């Protein structure tokens, strides 16, 4: 019910959210991407907006409709994502990094459509590691709470704890991507919320909408 979903816990606050998957070009028509649908990040942006926040959403390509009232910046590559974050982080009270960021990019992007005739039956792409946007983030004074995600197919808790420290974040939303009825492209998710000094909070299969509302509740309590 709309009334229960909307409130003013975040009025006057600016929440920056990243969503969707980045794309790294191979040539003028091809790219390396991932299965992120953007649904989790969009749900978080919507939940923040419904609590009265000013929301900036930085999104990779998705099939999702725009969220009325939410300023959305569309990006493709990790470089674009970094630039969009740099431009908005100094106004943000909180950042939620739900985007599935490409770990690697193609070393040399071809400026034309690659032809099969350029290769002899096999083709090798050289990839170079992208910077870790979240781990290298400068935390300006205005930024009070940072949420990272962790997509894991095994050792969810241990890997989530490691990312909590390595990424210098206040919370990791650890996502078990080994199950097909939750996670990628699903309207549901199952996550564990990991925070320093607190017992991990396990959220069993649940709509992304309700999980987003829980994440936004935690953020609003900290701002
Ligand atoms: N992330 C990022 N920049 C990258 C890679 C990831 O900012 N180059 C962010 C993601 O948006 C997410 C968090 O870091 O919030 C964890 O991403 P994940 O892919 O789970 O972890 P990685 O550090 O990339 O490690 P790995 O993929 O090897 O598990
Ligand atoms: Ca990764």
UniProtKB/TrEMBL annotation:
EC number: 4.1.1.36, 6.3.2.5
GO molecular function: FMN binding; metal ion binding; phosphopantothenate--cysteine ligase activity; phosphopantothenoylcysteine decarboxylase activity
Catalysed reactions listed for this entry: (R)-4'-phosphopantothenate + L-cysteine + CTP = N-[(R)-4-phosphopantothenoyl]-L-cysteine + CMP + diphosphate + H(+); N-[(R)-4-phosphopantothenoyl]-L-cysteine + H(+) = (R)-4'-phosphopantetheine + CO2
Membrane-spanning parts: none
Stretch list, region Phosphopantothenate--cysteine ligase: 15-223
Cofactor stoichiometry and binding remark: Binds 1 FMN per subunit.
Protein family membership: In the N-terminal section; belongs to the HFCD (homo-oligomeric flavin containing Cys decarboxylase) superfamily. In the C-terminal section; belongs to the PPC synthetase family.
Name of this chain's protein: Coenzyme A biosynthesis bifunctional protein CoaBC
Protein's organism: Pediococcus argentinicus
Portion of the parent chain present: 172 to 394 of 394
């Amino acid at each position: 019910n709309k009334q229960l979903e909307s409130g003013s816990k975040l009025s006057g606050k600016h929440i920056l959210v990243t969503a969707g998957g980045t794309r790294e070009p191979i040539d003028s028509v091809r790219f390396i991407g991932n299965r992120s649908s953007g649904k989790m990040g969009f749900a978080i942006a919507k939940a923040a907006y419904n609590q009265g926040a000013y929301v900036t959403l930085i999104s990779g390509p998705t099939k999702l409709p725009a969220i009325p009232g939410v300023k959305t910046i569309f990006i493709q590559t990790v470089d674009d994502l970094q630039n969009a974050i740099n431009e908005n982080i100094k106004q943000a009270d909180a950042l939620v990094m739900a985007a599935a960021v490409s770990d690697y990019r193609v070393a040399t992007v071809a400026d034309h459509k690659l032809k099969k005739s350029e290769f002899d039956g096999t083709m090798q792409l050289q990839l170079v590691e992208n910077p870790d946007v979240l781990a290298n983030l400068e935390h300006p004074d205005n930024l009070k709470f940072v949420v990272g995600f962790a997509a894991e197919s095994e050792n969810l808790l241990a890997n989530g704890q490691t990312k909590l420290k390595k990424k210098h974040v206040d919370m990791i939303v650890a996502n078990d991507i080994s199950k097909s009825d939750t996670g990628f492209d699903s309207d549901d998710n199952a996550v564990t919320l990991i925070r320093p000094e607190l017992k991990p909070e396990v959220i069993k299969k649940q709509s992304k909408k309700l999980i987003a509302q829980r994440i936004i509740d935690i953020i609003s309590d900290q701002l």
